[in-house]
């Protein structure tokens, strides 16, 4: 029987020139970097704690806590802008030249950005929802709108509405989950950081900057990814609808798409066993000549 890694036994710190990065480490083998998504009270540990035991049997798992979410030291930069640099600082600080990467939502975008700009650092890439752009569905999705509402007016009821939008089965939203998310999401520093990402003024400013810029969005550069890629998605995702997968599925050169039924945005939690099976098969598949 596999022992579940604990929060305390796996927690590590790495001092960098932009503050302390905190991460969780479990297992031995090739390095596997696990990158969390965004949202109220999110941490890398909460995203991936249930998956660590399975992956630690095959990999040296490193669950990074992004700056700006209340665990690693903030850098002062927008959390999304700070994240790719944090990935590279962690890899460099640990002496890791190349790693496999799994990213949930925002974490998948960050991993894709690293794979685009530093292709030699990513061997294989796995994303969980969030990657790409809306093709048929209106944007932002229901879950993003509820996230913006919570950020503007953080109440327990708004948090519960957002959490329910993340899952297919509402029974997954337990009182324990609400309590631990609420405590971190309402920390003043974390809330300030969240408003830089999802406050209405911040979203409007970002949309205006994108409209005025000649720089292509990251999803228009996905053809530059050289890592073998597995896109995983919940069929019933109400945060980032499934049609967002069409552009990355078509443009990433070596890509597979696996869609899980009866599943929302947190595929690694809601379809845990099936997701772990598919991802482990992909990551451990032998290279073809």
Automatic annotation (TrEMBL):
Pfam families: Abhydrolase_1. The keyword Hydrolase applies. SUPFAM superfamilies: alpha/beta-Hydrolases. Keywords: Hydrolase. One of its GO terms (molecular function) is hydrolase activity. InterPro entries: AB_hydrolase_1, AB_hydrolase_fold, AB_hydrolase_sf. Residues 30-270 form the AB hydrolase-1 domain. This is Alpha/beta fold hydrolase. It comes from Planomonospora corallina.
């Amino acid at each position: 029987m596999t022992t579940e890694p604990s929060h305390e036994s796996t927690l590590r710190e790495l001092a960098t020139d932009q503050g302390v990065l905190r991460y969780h480490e479990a297992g031995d083998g090739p390095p596997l970097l696990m990158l969390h998504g965004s949202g109220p009270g999110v941490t890398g540990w909460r995203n991936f704690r249930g998956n660590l035991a399975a992956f630690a049997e095959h990999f040296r798992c490193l669950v990074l806590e992004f700056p700006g979410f209340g665990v690693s030291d903030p850098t002062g930069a927008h959390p999304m802008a700070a994240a790719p640099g944090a990935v590279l600082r962690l890899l460099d600080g640990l002496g890791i030249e190349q790693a496999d990467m799994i990213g949930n939502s925002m974490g998948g975008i960050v991993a894709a950005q690293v794979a685009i700009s530093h292709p030699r650092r990513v061997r294989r890439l796995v994303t969980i929802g969030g990657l790409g752009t809306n093709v048929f569905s209106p944007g932002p999705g229901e879950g993003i709108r509820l996230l913006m509402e919570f950020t503007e007016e953080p109440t327990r009821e708004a948090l519960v509405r957002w959490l329910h939008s993340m899952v297919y089965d509402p029974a997954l939203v337990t009182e324990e989950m609400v309590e631990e998310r609420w405590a971190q999401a309402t920390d003043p520093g974390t809330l300030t950081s969240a408003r830089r990402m999802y406050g209405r003024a911040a979203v409007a400013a970002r949309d205006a900057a994108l409209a005025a810029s000649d720089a292509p969005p990251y999803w228009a550069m996905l053809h530059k990814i050289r890592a073998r890629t597995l896109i995983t998605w919940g069929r019933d995702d109400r945060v980032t609808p499934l049609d967002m997968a069409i552009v990355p599925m078509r443009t990433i050169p070596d890509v597979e798409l696996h869609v899980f039924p009866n599943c929302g945005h947190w595929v690694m939690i809601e379809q845990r066993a099936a997701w772990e099976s598919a991802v482990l098969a992909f990551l451990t598949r032998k290279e073809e000549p």
